[in-house]
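ok trying this again, last paste got cut off
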Amino acid sequence: MKYLCLFLLIGIQCIGQNKKSYFFDENWNAITEKAFRQTEVGNDKFSQFFELDTANVGKVYLFENYGELETKHFEAIRKHLEKLSGKALDISKPIVINYVSAIDPTSRNPATGRINIYDTSDYKGNRKTKKRTDINLLWLQHPANKSEIDRYSKKVTWLFDKDDYIAKTFLEYNCHIGSLIVINPDGSYLAYYCIERAFREIDEIIDRMKNKSLH
């Protein structure tokens, strides 16, 4: 809601005038264009520039985003995932979600025809992760991707989140190369944007989050 109100305010300010540009750091604090351009991106941060109908917005993001769910919200998410997957989740184990956002055709790699690391019929990655018994592992995609399911390996059971509830809850930025969401039994969570960049480290990321607590 905070971000929605912010974009609505930008829209109202820009009605009847040329599009302005607004810049924000990773905490949505307003910064100058110079500060935005000079932000060091790499291991922990990246920046994106969006052209909206009424304004241009530059935003700095963190790859690793930590938070904590209230008990009722966590319960609602767990029930949502159980309904979606058709199976009960072990409440003593972390929930690990591999998530693919809505496919943007302009994001397709012209050399390979791929959009993300999962986008291949012979995908064999995450073998170790798929064999783990200490996590609740789920594979989710934006519902708009359902028509292209044949592009993905049949060895992975992809679920399509009808209302995109999970992404709306955890992902401020939807990265087309996939995101990883790890939710601990205590409600603490990690949303890792653009997980393809750290694909070989997924199990280490999961283990690190398992051992992390906000309490």
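PB: full thing came through this time. The first helix runs from residue 2 to 14.
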